[in-house]
Automatic annotation (TrEMBL):
SUPFAM superfamilies cross-referenced by the UniProt entry: alpha/beta-Hydrolases (SSF53474)
Higher taxonomy: Eukaryota, Fungi, Dikarya, Ascomycota, Pezizomycotina
Superkingdom, natural source: Eukaryota
Keyword Transmembrane helix set for record: no
Domain Phospholipase/carboxylesterase/thioesterase intervals: 7-244
Alphabetically ordered keywords of this record: Hydrolase
Annotated GO CC locations: cytoplasm
Protein name as catalogued: Alpha/Beta hydrolase protein
GO MF annotation: an example: palmitoyl-(protein) hydrolase activity
Keyword presence, Hydrolase: yes
Amino acid sequence: MATLSTCIIAPTAPHTHTVIFLHGRGDTASNFMTSFQEWRDSESRCLADLFPSVRWVFPQSELRAAARFPAARMSQWFDTWNIANLHEKEELQIDGLKESVASIRVLVDKEVRKLGGQSEKVVLAGLSQGGATAAHTLINVAKRLGGLMVFSGRMPFPGRTLADTRAVLDLAGVPDDDSAVRTTPVLVQHCVDDPLSRIKNGREVRDSLSSFGAQVEWREYPTGGHWFNSPDGIQDASTWLRAHVFQDEGR
């Protein structure tokens, strides 16, 4: 299990929460952090502007071999054979996803300690393959988190029960019950015109997590491609964060 390097946007107000935001396949933490700050609302504010007490943590995935391109190693949380159909040779996803989820859990624990042990102050988020990894991290943690946000995501190993989905990765320290999943609010956003992760993939994330007992808020947008919708998507994310994560902060 690797210790992940991270890029940080430090809070500009007293630190109250942390969002751990995972980049997509082929991207880097540094590039994604820069791109994240370009996601703006109608008043040209990014999420870091809207939530100044948040520590934004962008972990860097490992360079992993790509089975379909044997000469290449790429920045990815796990390998896939066909991004259009994760069911094809889906066993290729297991090793990388298991390693990545284990590493993200360590990062979550580190951020929870920074916040005095308050796991409900830590939010997981991810774009594309990062969203898939964040979703699998949620179902393999023992304590409620502040929230999960998945953008343009996919759900590896769908159509299984919660227990069977956990069994695919077979991680240590996974609870037997579903309390963390049921009590962690979830936001899933997806653009209908996404050419890489089709809208059906986002709906599969929604449906899978809902079947595990999660309370999922779903938002789909006609445009935005394989990315965030602007400005409506950022407005909806901001509203969701205020309602579910910062509800006791007087924001």
